[in-house]
Each structure stands twice: as C-alpha cells, then as structure tokens.
Specification:
About 35% of the residues lie in helices and about 25% in strands. By secondary structure, it is an alpha/beta fold.
Length: about 150
C-alpha cells in the first residue's frame, strides 16, 4: 500500500456466523429484489447486527445510500458492507475512502476493484452466500466462529 494513499480503515472483524446472518437479513429484508429481479440491496453490519439496509435499481446507488448514512452519522464505518451488485472500482474506492474495512458482494469484483482493495488494505469478499464466501484480499478480518 502506498503511504498516504488512503486513511486508516476503521478496524473490525466478522465471523462466519455473522456473515451468514448478515447475508440472510439483507436478502430477506425486502421481497422487491426477488419479485422484480431488478432491485439491488445493500446492507451494513456492525456490532453484531444489521445497522442499515437500502435498495435501489442501481447497484452504485444502493452502496451510496449506505455511505450517505455513514456521512450523516447514522452508522459508523467500522463494519462490513454487503451488496447484491458487482463490486466495481468506484464502489470499492468509495468504501475504502470512507474507511469501511470489509466489503462483500453476492457477485464478482472487477479487476480494478480488487486492485484498489489491495492498495487500500480492504478485505474484499465476493460470491458471498450464507454458506460460503470467497475472500480475495485481507482474510484476517474474517474469523472462524469460536476463534
């Protein structure tokens, strides 16, 4: 990571059990995604529970709503964000710049999104489902249950 490129992340960890609950809660929060197949959901997990959930037809907009809640002081950046949309470079960059240490998606990251996560030290996880998750960078923030 280049010195001074990003502010320090708001450190935290998340267990596999928390990931399981987090993803289930985001996906069950609203039936709109399943009913329409055109609405993206995005949630934020901190302190062992779902802190915020937003939806939008644009995956970027759903993430921006969570970031807006952080900027407005409604939630802290010290947690994990999960989106149903693909992790593009600008989405990962926004999360890194605001200090979110764990960024997860139901689908794939872009190659530039992965490069930004590496440079910023963000834990990047994709293909996240309640029963599995692929961690592409900084796996130390995701800990085994009971560890």
């Amino acid at each position: 990571m280049l010195e001074g490129a990003f502010d320090p992340l708001k450190e935290c960890t998340i267990t596999f059990d928390e990931i399981r609950r987090f993803i289930r809660e985001v996906l069950q929060y609203s039936p709109l995604g399943g009913q329409t197949h055109c609405v993206h959901g995005c949630g934020f997990w901190a302190d062992g529970k779902l802190q915020a959930h937003y939806e939008d037809v644009g995956r970027h907009n759903a993430v921006d709503k969570v970031i807006g809640a952080i900027l407005l002081g409604k939630i802290t950046a010290r947690g994990a964000i999960y989106t149903t949309g693909r992790l593009t470079s600008d989405m990962v960059l926004k999360c890194a710049r605001i200090g979110i240490p764990i960024v997860m998606s139901r689908t794939a990251p872009s190659s530039l999104g992965l490069a930004i996560a590496r440079r910023a030290g963000v834990t990047l996880a994709a293909y996240a489902r309640p029963d599995r998750v692929n961690v592409f960078h900084a796996p130390e923030r995701i800990i085994r249950d009971g560890a």
